[in-house]
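Design job #97: recover the sequence.
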């Protein structure tokens, strides 16, 4: 006789409110299974008093007033209930379903619920419970997101580990990454996980402040220090005393001011503009830039000594195109958020929309993805986001290369690189480029269709296209 290594489902499945038809279906479906399932029916008012029992699942039937149901789910989760919460209702709007899922519900079932659906749900409950029992639930579940970041790709897991490693220190952190990758989010996460988390976090964007005002913004000024200085004013440094000062786009700072910043970092002492009184501060520095600091140093726009003083604990944020597995997770989170904020009814992306999201290179990274989803929600109606809706919002960045551009790309390869052998055989990379460009032309510039025709991932095509200018010197 085979031995079932899964834990017997002896914990309760709680059914909130009375529905004899649903309970009968639930009990009949549970019969004959290898595990013993105890089903308990209670009223909603009794649910929180049973939270310490941590049932494997809780079915909430016909939740009624959604605001109360939303609050109830939140209280269940806050009480430590990690089991599945499932809503079964005969009538529920798309918007209300979104609200309940966002509150913490795992699934919404439309009544009458079929036996196959109940059987599948019971299997999922049992699998999750058995995983918890044998200690392998962490391995079976995908890694959780971190703070406000969304993503479980290897690159993001490494970032989370780095943030946790550098957060306890008081040493400066230097964050690099393209625009829109979440550099300020990373800075806030370092601060939130540090011993300074209860102290101020002051962010200053060095590219958004006029050059002649930057010194005052950082160090403050006294009354009469310059025209318009009508009163004493503390700068960002003083406001961050005891906490964290985040200087975003640091490479945009005036070269002369960088010397004053360096002295401040070395000594911890500042002077307000126009003041002779020194002030000693305790600050943790976090800086960020979307530029290559080494190139900025070579161009004499960024001080080398300042760079080495700040680049103690480096954090590098990867572009979204290099963590494609996270794109859909981020897009779905954005869809839920913006659907609620805009009072819309969208629930999901269609399959063709998912393919389009995965194929796009997202040069603006997460910020561009967020804006694209929001525009699609605001400008459209329905319960699904289609590829057409996304195409319209991506018109400026153009996911699909136009036919004219595709045709121009399919130029004679002999003009790009000469033959390098007497036989006229071209390098494999050049032949590969010709194949891809010809396929793009035949597909009318649509990268998704091109990838499907070539049996490769759309991201593979974008990656190769990005390498061509450097590879062939055009």
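Job complete. Output follows.
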């Amino acid at each position: 006789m085979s031995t079932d290594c899964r834990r017997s489902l002896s914990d309760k499945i709680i059914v909130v409110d009375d529905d004899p038809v649903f309970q009968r279906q639930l009990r009949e479906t549970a019969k004959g299974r290898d595990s013993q399932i105890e089903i308990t029916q209670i009223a909603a008012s009794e649910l929180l008093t049973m939270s310490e029992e941590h049932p494997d699942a809780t079915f909430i039937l016909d939740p009624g007033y959604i605001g109360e149901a939303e609050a109830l789910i939140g209280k269940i989760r806050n009480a430590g209930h990690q089991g599945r919460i499932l809503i079964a209702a005969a009538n529920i709007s798309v918007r209300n379903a979104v609200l309940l899922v966002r509150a913490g519900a795992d699934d919404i079932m439309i009544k009458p619920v079929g036996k196959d659906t109940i059987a599948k749900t019971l299997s999922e409950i049992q699998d999750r419970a058995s995983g918890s029992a044998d200690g392998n639930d962490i391995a079976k579940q995908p890694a959780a997101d971190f703070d406000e970041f969304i993503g479980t790709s290897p690159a993001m897991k490494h970032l989370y580990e780095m943030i946790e490693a550098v957060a306890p220190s008081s040493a400066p952190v230097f964050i690099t990454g393209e625009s829109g990758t979440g550099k300020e989010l990373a800075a806030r996460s370092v601060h939130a996980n540090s011993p300074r988390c209860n102290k101020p976090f002051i962010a200053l964007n060095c590219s958004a402040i006029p050059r002649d005002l930057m010194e005052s913004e950082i160090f403050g000024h006294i009354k009469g220090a310059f025209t318009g200085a009508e009163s004493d004013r503390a700068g960002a440094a003083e406001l961050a005393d005891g906490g964290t000062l985040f200087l975003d786009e640091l490479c945009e700072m005036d070269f002369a001011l960088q010397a004053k910043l360096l002295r401040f970092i070395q000594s911890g002492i500042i002077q307000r503009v126009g003041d002779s009184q020194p002030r000693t501060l305790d600050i943790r520095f976090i800086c960020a830039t979307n530029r290559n600091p080494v190139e900025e140093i070579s161009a004499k726009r960024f001080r080398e000594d300042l760079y080495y003083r700040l680049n103690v604990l480096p954090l590098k944020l990867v572009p979204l195109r290099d963590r494609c597995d996270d794109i859909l997770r981020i897009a779905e989170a954005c869809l839920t958020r913006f659907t609620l904020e805009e009072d819309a009814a969208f629930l999901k992306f269609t399959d063709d929309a998912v393919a389009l999201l995965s194929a796009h290179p997202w040069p603006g990274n997460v910020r561009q993805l967020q804006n694209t989803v929001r525009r699609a929600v605001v400008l459209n109606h329905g319960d699904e986001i289609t590829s057409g809706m996304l195409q319209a919002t991506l018109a400026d960045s153009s996911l699909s290369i136009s036919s004219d551009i595709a045709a121009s790309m399919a130029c004679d390869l002999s003009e790009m690189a000469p033959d390098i052998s007497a036989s006229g055989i071209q390098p494999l990379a050049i032949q590969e480029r010709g194949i891809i460009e010809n396929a793009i032309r035949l597909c009318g510039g649509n990268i998704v269709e091109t990838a499907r025709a070539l049996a490769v991932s759309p991201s593979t095509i974008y990656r190769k296209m990005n390498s061509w200018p450097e590879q062939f010197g055009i």
